[in-house]
């Protein structure tokens, strides 16, 4: 049994584990708007019964630049990949830097290459919610589009609603969102990730073969 299958048993029946949602995002600045937005969405996922693990800037900044076949990227990289293998859903939050996602968030996503030989390679069969924060609308929208393309390439199921947050109009003082409409957006992201993960997990059959290009 490959690591992904062992880590992600199907749900249903007595003793079934709760859904697991992994978040990654933020910046090197502690308490950044993208980090706070991610934590808000993760709290919502917990309210819906999921277990969660968030990787924010403090940890993502420790990841070396991804190099295929270079061996372990260190303890943070190993834990990130292990958590993604366990994940039923993923939430990604990036700042909009010059029209696209940050290099730090992209580098973290590149570590899914270590999952390429799994029965469920990359982000296959995982619902993925997206959050972007930027000082203005243009970068928010273009970054959201870029993230959608990346997740599609990683075979993840992007949830319909993506949260684009203009940090010029919304703040997260003490971790609290100042705009109730933005809070609702973040809740929708988490709701869709958990709802889709429930549907997929309830129907998952461990005996099914891997996806094309995945573990045979």
UniProtKB/TrEMBL annotation:
GO terms for cellular component: cytosol. GO terms for molecular function: FMN binding; oxidoreductase activity. It holds the Pfam family FMN_red. Residues 20-164 form the NADPH-dependent FMN reductase-like domain. This is FMN reductase. InterPro entries: Flavoprotein-like_sf (IPR029039), FMN_Rdtase-like_dom (IPR005025), NAD(P)H-dep_reductase (IPR050712).
């Amino acid at each position: 049994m490959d690591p992904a299958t062992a880590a992600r048993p199907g749900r249903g029946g007595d003793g079934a584990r709760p859904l697991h949602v992994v978040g990654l995002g933020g910046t090197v600045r502690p308490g950044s708007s993208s980090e706070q937005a991610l934590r808000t969405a993760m709290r919502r996922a917990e309210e819906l019964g999921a277990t969660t693990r968030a990787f924010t800037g403090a940890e993502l900044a420790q990841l070396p630049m991804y190099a295929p076949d270079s061996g372990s990227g260190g303890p943070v990289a190993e834990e990130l990949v292990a958590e993604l293998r366990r994940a039923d859903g993923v939430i990604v939050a990036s700042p909009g830097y010059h029209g696209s996602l940050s290099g730090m968030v992209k580098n973290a996503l590149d570590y899914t290459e270590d999952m390429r030989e799994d029965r469920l390679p990359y982000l296959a069969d995982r619902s993925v919610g997206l959050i972007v924060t930027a000082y203005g609308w243009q970068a928010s929208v273009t970054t959201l589009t870029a993230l959608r393309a990346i997740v599609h390439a990683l075979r993840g199921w992007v949830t319909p609603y993506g949260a684009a947050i203009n940090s010029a109009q919304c703040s997260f003082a003490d971790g609290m969102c100042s705009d109730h409409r933005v809070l609702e957006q973040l809740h929708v992201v988490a709701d869709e990730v958990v709802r889709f993960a429930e549907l997929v997990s309830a129907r998952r059959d461990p005996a099914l073969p891997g996806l094309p290009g995945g573990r045979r």
